[in-house]
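Summary for the steering committee. One of the milestones for this cycle was to obtain a three-dimensional model of the protein with S-adenosyl-L-homocysteine bound, which we needed before selecting residues for the alanine scan. The sequence and ligand used are listed below.
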Amino acid sequence: MGPAEAAALAVRLRSAVGDERVLGAIAAMPRERFVPLSERPRAYENVALPIACGQTISQPLVVARMLETLQLQPDDRVLDIGTGSGYHAALLARLAAEVYSVELHAALSDRAARALAAAGAHVTLAVGDGCRGLPAHAPYDAINVAAAARRRIPPALIEQLAPGGRLVAPVEERGEQRLALLRKRGDELLVTRLDRVRFVPLRS
Ligand code: SAH
């Protein structure tokens, strides 16, 4: 297992994902490092898989769609909420300059730290409630939320977006989850609703 399977995964995503930088990041990322040993045989399948603490590593297609939605620039500073396995954060780190990632469960954050180091990805991890964002390093050019918010995105996250910043998050409304893209333009907040998804809930 290794880069050959990751490259094959990126090829399979090509019909649904147009951004070559995103596909390149997926092709270079050893997803097997981010899943429990028992799930390694399935690490390069396009499916969500169980990780510790009853959580999941997201489906690669959904991760890729969220990454391309953020339109990351190489000098961007990014906040990721819900570190989980660290896989999504590792991909963000290949596409942007600085990545901060917040996780509620310390045990998951510890495992993610080891996986990120093994994959050679530089991400600054924090343990705590991501609904509060990470004010110490704000503002962020992009914010990625990997757990579903009930109806509204936590206001602290919107506050910590830089002018021109983008935020992508699954939002649950009337029993249905969809990705939402928020863009900050001056005093205006532009909201676009995108793909249907299934994420674990964002705890508050
Ligand atoms: N991005 C992850 C997938 C994470 S699943 C990956 O690539 O593997 C969602 C994660 O969000 C879970 O690990 C869950 O513990 C975490 N989470 C849920 N609510 C949270 C909150 N309020 N603050 C921080 N993390 C939270």
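Key point for the committee: The chain has a mean pLDDT of 96.
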